[in-house]
Design brief:
globular; alpha/beta; 24% strand
Length: 274
Amino acid sequence: MSTPTKIIAPKFKVTRRSALPPRETKISVDELNFYYGRAQALHNITLNIPERMVMAFIGPSGCGKTTFLRTLNRMNDVIPGTRVEGKVSMDGQDIYAPGADVVELRRKVGMVFQKSNPFPKSIFDNVAYGLRINRLTSSKSELEDRVAAALQDAALWPEVKDRLKSSALGLSGGQQQRLCIARGLAIRPEVILMDEPASALDPIATSKIEELIVDLKKQYTIVIVTHNMQQAARVSDLTAFFLLGKLIEVNATEKMFTAPNEKLTEDYITGRFG
């Protein structure tokens, strides 16, 4: 009788972690189906996302990773003809329930996009934008303190503290992405969704974003979509593998990249397809 094969994939440097500490569930998804018109993009997705951990979504292009990510803060609502079945709950509250406050949801669940999108404003005004439109500060000094704190949390403060009035468009690509993260952090969300946040960045900028993700999970629940399996191995505690709109496996990242439960996961990780 043959013994199970243990995957040894030298190209993946999995960050060694002790047993994952127990965490309360932050987001719970139950039998989620999603449609673009008549085309079904997601099929019966069920998983739990624990608080203050990093969960990575991996899988080939077109497998539904980003579509699923966007269901977690209802970003797909802006696309005509889309439809959701099933349940998505945050802290036990169904975010798709009739009367659910979508504005409040998106304040709690921030989003960082693949391409950095700073506003054509100063560095300060970019970070202050959400605070101002949501009227979250009561004085100029409080606004300044919140902006500084967000830039510090995004590991950008030392690089920009002396040029806060300068245009954000003058920052490097990696700095712009961290500025967008700071803009999201300023309103103090509870969950941060990241859609390929380092895909357009050079290795040094990518490393800074990854270090930031690991640091931010002390305060936030983070979900990241990535095509880069090495990145998933480096930054995430849990990994979910998607294929053709279906969730194939969710597992601790270390186990996923060394001894996955599903043959399809093994085939993808070892490069047999994708």
